[in-house]
Amino acid sequence: MASLQDQLLKAGLTTKQKTRQANSDKRKKNKQQRSGVEHGASLQEQVKQDLAISKADKLAKDTALNEAKKIELAKKEQNLRIKQILEHHQLTGVKGESDYNYTFNNKVKKLALNSITHKALVNGRLALCGLNESTYLVTSETAAKVAELDSSMILVQNDKVTVEETDEDDPYADYQIPDDLMW
Fold it and tell me: pTM of the predicted model, to two decimals?
């Protein structure tokens, strides 16, 4: 079978010049498709997709960074609020001869208190709070406010001592432990 071009030439419907021109146009079109017009369009699509992906990644990273900054700022604000409460409500002028031992950052520390303050601390009317290597002696109400913000700041907060009922059958009822006994 002869091609359509050959058949049209034999029938006299076209000339050799027109067939050469048609073949030349066809080759140019195929060459353009192979060499880049189609490839350029797909490359542009790929660049657009990569740009969209990078924008989305950057937006996600920025959002996460902003959230971390907000959390850090809130934590700083909370620490400043706690520091303000402790410094404003701390009890001063309570130095004395009685030592009170407590732990702060896994270290045993001593605090010299007078007898009234020592008894109030033991009975739960006072509490010890720690912030930035400093110890603050505050009332139990102030310690409760601090505990609402951050309970890890409370070093010592004893329960209020109630009067204990003595058992009549207790053989040691006559030997009560004194309140000022130091271990």
Answer: 0.51
